[in-house]
Amino acid sequence: MTLDMSQQEAGLVRDRYVLGHSSEEYQRLQRQGQTFEAVTRRLFHAIGLRPGWTCLDVGCGPGETMRLMGEMVGPSGEVTGLDRDSNAGREAIARLQATGTSCYRFIEANMESADDIGGELFDFTFARLALLFTRDPVAVLRRMYRWTKPGGTVAVQDLYVRTINLYPRLEACSELLRVILETCARSGQDMEFAFKLPVYFVDAGIGAPDGTDIDLPMTSLEPFVAHHQALCRSLLPRAVELGVTTQERMQGVFRDLEQARADERQYSALWPAMIGVWKRKPMR
Ligand SMILES: C[S@@+](CC[C@H](N)C(=O)[O-])C[C@H]1O[C@@H](n2cnc3c(N)ncnc32)[C@H](O)[C@@H]1O
């Protein structure tokens, strides 16, 4: 840690967030946002996002879900991002405001401890790939429900990784996935989190979900490896720190994967399932 590191940066280092806060990670999240755009758009359509709605995106990162919300709620609506990483949030707002699609705002806050975020209640409160990183997702869901207007909707979308599979087996890919999953599990992430969401909604006092949406892509090797290799690069410092792998070992794995991607061989790759769950808050 350098001596001139700002308090905010020092706080982010201490938070032990497994994917880190580098500009490479922001770029990866933007690319990943494109991968998951269709399934998130489908969820927003099922929920019925409309022009004029006010939306809160919890754990917004570099703002890819905010962009989608903004397109659907339009200039008469408003989209607020919440994240404890203010660099990501500020960059997102600058980029999104330039699109002119809606009105965008950012709140710097920790979703695990922020009780007061200004008193505003939202028509739609959403979190994608964010609650998985919290110690107590039920407590965060309780907050999200509190931040939602009567008649508004709470929704969460996250990945369920137990579906991942590859045929035929490729040693380098198995090792890549082992490093990702072991690093996440040893950092305290519950790999079954998304599957438990309906129960967590009830535990948080929100009630049984009104709807669920599941997307399970199956592709060739190339996009599957590109996605997981980029994810692995972001969490590699943590993986090395935890002793899950070494930089040298992963360089070898990445080389073997490049080789496999260059081969013409057909593979069948089953992705993590994206699970979406939502519930409308009663009017009173
Ligand atoms: C994997 S990114 C997902 C970003 C975005 N929701 C998306 O789907 O592209 C997770 C985000 O959650 C944020 N985050 C993690 N824990 C947080 C916390 N306790 N409070 C606020 N933000 C948090 C991280 O800073 C990061 O921007």
Report on the architecture of this protein.
It is a single chain. This protein has 284 residues and is of the alpha/beta class. The chain has a single domain (18-280), classed as 3-Layer(aba) Sandwich (Rossmann fold), CATH 3.40.50. The chain has helices at residues 7-14, 23-35, 37-47, 64-73, 86-97, 137-146, 171-186, 197-203, 221-241, 247-262, and strands spanning 54-58, 78-83, 103-108, 122-128, 148-160, 165-167, 211-215, 218-219, 268-270, 273-280. The strands form two sheets. Strands 3-2-1-4-5-10-7 form a seven-stranded mixed sheet, with helices on both faces. It has a three-stranded antiparallel sheet with strand order 6-9-8. β1 (54-58), α4 (64-73) and β2 form a beta-alpha-beta unit. α7 (171-186) packs across α9 (221-241), α7 crosses α10 and α9 packs antiparallel against α10. The longest helix has 21 residues, at 221-241. The protein starts with 6 loop residues before the first helix and ends with a strand. S-adenosylmethionine binds next to α2 and α4. S-adenosylmethionine binds at residues 17, 19, 29, 33, 59-61, 64-65, 83-85, 88, 110-112, 128-130, 133-134.
